[in-house]
Amino acid sequence: MTSTNTALATALEAAASGDARRYVITGGPSSGKDDLIEAVHTAGIPCMAEEPGREIYRKHRERLGRHLLREDRRDYSLEVLSAFIAEYTAHTHGIRFYNRGIPDGYGWEGFFGLKPTSELEEATRAYRYDAIFVLDPLDTFEDPDDIVWAKDREIRRVHELIVQGYYDAGYEPVFVQPDSATARLDFICANLRLPKPSPGV
Amino acid sequence: MSRNGKSALLISPNSVLANALLRSIDLLRPRVLAARPARIEFVVGTQINGAPHLGTNLVQTAAFLLAKIARREFSIDTTVRFGALDNAPHEVVLDPETHHAYQQTYVHALGKDGIGELIEGYYQAFFDSLSEATDTDYVVETYTDQQATPGFRAEFLRTLERLEDIRWWMAPSHGVVHIRIPCPSCGWAEKRGDRTKLAHLDEDGATFTAVCFDHGPYEVHIDPEDDAPYLDLATLYRNLVKERALGRDEHTLHVMMKGGDWTFGCQLVDGALGALATPPTQMPSRIFTPQVLAPTGAKLSKSLLRERGADALPADVEPWMLDTTAWPGSVDDYVDALVWLVGELLTDPKHFFRSFTVKELGRLMTVRPAEPAVRAHEMGIYKRYFDLIATGRKTTEIRVNDSSRRKIKEGSLIRFRCQGDAVLTRVTAINRYASFEEMFDHQDVASVNPLATREDQLANIRQIYPPEREALGVVAIGIELVDPPPAHLNRPNRAYQGDR
């Protein structure tokens, strides 16, 4: 897709022949990531479509005939890692956003009580991103009725483990506060010194 | 000292609102005068996900008591509508793939029969007792029933047409409005609607796409003509749609009864109602009831109990305050105590439009009358008739047959009240007629008023009841004194004093 914003389109085009610039958008569940990725696409910025883990999960689930359990995670994680590496290496020039990145694996492995694989550690060292944007959750994960579900606490934990994973991998993420997807993308672009995609800004 | 010279039970500083009101019920007067509704319905919604706490029962009691007061004050029939929010989350799980939270509502987990049992277990006896104590009918409507009505669905679809205008009101922090449409195969829905998207909207309805953690992607269509699929709206959005739908009723004024903590959320709902260009006459009428506060000033919440255990409760919080089923007495006893308490709060707007700590409520409850209240239907009456009843000379009382009279049976007790005096009577007979004329054809005129002719009585009674009230029918209630007349009232009738 081509950007509808002329200044942004010009900037993207100018960057297209230069070195590869890879930017990760990540965050825990209910952080508004899907909406933001959609906004990135709408703005005409090159971006990974769906995080590869979802398609791979569906394939494994179909094979197993059930949801994955802890003991199934290792094979699944390695396959997801391969997909992330393929995505990474396929991109050689210009700007590209990523729907999660390789170090997300630390968070998910940690959540399931698994140690990071040597493959993950090696890939983390070899394939470095240029910036990490962590989306703060859009919810407090509390019920208006004052019920706090254990499962909702797990969501918060997933988020925190993902963030920790990036720190452990040597990154300093930029946190994107809750807002509309358009405003968040403007914030991200401003951080990257790119023209803001939203009209009239 | 209070206004009437008695020692004050409650001391409340004046407030902006209290300064504008002499009586709490006057908050409704502008709307009642402008809309002239045929009926007023006090709407109170409650999550049914566990035993109620004091705050919940306080709102409900206020609804019944205000219904009783409004009926007398405005001569308009009143009822209570209890909205049982059976869409409260019963269970939450995480999608093993994405870790998005999915929830199953109470109705999806327990079924309609299970919901019926919950309502019966937690509320039926309480409401029946409140209904009897306040002479006020009530109906129960579950959220499941409500969302299935064409009116609710049509209103929801209208909001979708203006989603861009309301979304920041419904979600001011990020503008993302959550709509839950459970999977038609299993009933589970994304708790925060992350992947639930409005795919299409036209005059035939709205099509949503969503993803079930078990059944994958699905598509559903919301159409006002169809009561399925299930539409589960988050709190503020549900209130917006409900209040918009009820506001369209030209005959009934719906008064939303809400705990005081709702005031802030309602500002957002009002913003959305404004963005939808809701006409002033259709804006919701709301009454916020006193908040029950823990010693820290925080809202009394079961999370106090849930998170820290019963041992960690502040000393001021009695167990029944968090779980009212633990009240050490009968349901009637509990209801009488609450009716007394809320009645005291309603004696002055300064007391009603404020919050109370559990300690203060505990103090009030200990000073309530030790004598158990004698349950009786209550009727205000003009002084000249009150004196006739109190001296045993008036043995037939005439009223229009509104909902509060339909429960009166032979043997029922009626307490007549006038200027701070009360007289307790027992019903000896009940006869219903189409009009006052027909009633006087059958009743002994002197038993209604020994001092006036039939013509005079007809003229007097029609000054009290306009034709639309007489159209409800007429009930002639035979009465006798329960106790002998007090000595100071046992004297010839005094001149008409012109007030109740």
What does this 3D model show about the protein?
The complex is a heterodimer of chains A (201) and B (500). Chain A has helices at residues 6-16, 33-42, 52-64, 73-90, 104-111, 118-126, 150-168, 181-191, and strands at 20-26, 94-99, 131-135, 174-176. The relative contact order of chain A is 0.20. By secondary structure, chain A is α/β, with parallel strands linked by helices. Helix content of chain A is 49%, strand content 10%. The longest helix of chain A is centred in the last third of the chain and has 19 residues, at 150-168. The radius of gyration of chain A is 17 Å and the shape is globular. The mean pLDDT of chain A is 92. Chain B has a five-stranded parallel sheet with strand order 5-2-1-12-13, sandwiched between helices. Chain B has a five-stranded mixed sheet with strand order 16-18-19-20-17. In chain B, α4 packs across α12 and α8 packs across α9 (262-275). The two termini of chain B are 24 Å apart. The A-B interface holds A 28-30, 32, 34-35, 53-54, 57-58, 61, 67-68, 111, 138-139, 141, 143-149, 151-152, 154-155, 158, 178-181 and B 47, 49, 88-89, 92-101, 173-176, 192, 194-195, 216, 235, 301-303, 306-307.
Strand content of chain B: 15-25%
Strand order of the largest sheet of chain B: 5-2-1-12-13
Given helix and strand content, the structural type of chain A is alpha/beta
Profile the largest sheet of chain A. 4 strands, parallel
Structure at a glance:
Chain A has 201 residues and is α/β, with parallel strands linked by helices. Chain A contains eight helices and four strands, in the order H-E-H-H-H-E-H-H-E-H-E-H. Chain A has a four-stranded parallel beta sheet with strand order 2-1-3-4, sandwiched between helices.
Which secondary structure elements does this structure contain, and how are they paired or packed?
The complex is a heterodimer of chains A (201) and B (500).
Chain A: H1 6-16, E1 20-26, H2 33-42, H3 52-64, H4 73-90, E2 94-99, H5 104-111, H6 118-126, E3 131-135, H7 150-168, E4 174-176, H8 181-191
Parallel strand pairs in A: 1-2, 1-3, 3-4
Chain B: H1 16-20, H2 29-35, E1 39-47, H3 54-74, E2 77-85, E3 89-94, E4 101-105, H4 106-134, E5 138-142, H5 143-147, H6 150-161, H7 163-170, E6 179-180, E7 189-190, E8 197-202, E9 205-212, E10 216-222, E11 232-233, H8 235-247, E12 252-259, H9 262-275, E13 285-289, E14 292-293, H10 302-308, H11 319-322, H12 331-345, H13 349-352, E15 356-357, H14 358-366, E16 377-380, H15 383-390, E17 396-400, E18 413-418, E19 421-433, H16 436-442, H17 445-448, H18 454-464, H19 467-470, E20 474-481
Parallel strand pairs in B: 1-2, 1-12, 2-5, 12-13, 14-15, 16-18
Antiparallel strand pairs in B: 3-4, 4-7, 6-11, 8-9, 9-10, 17-20, 18-19, 19-20
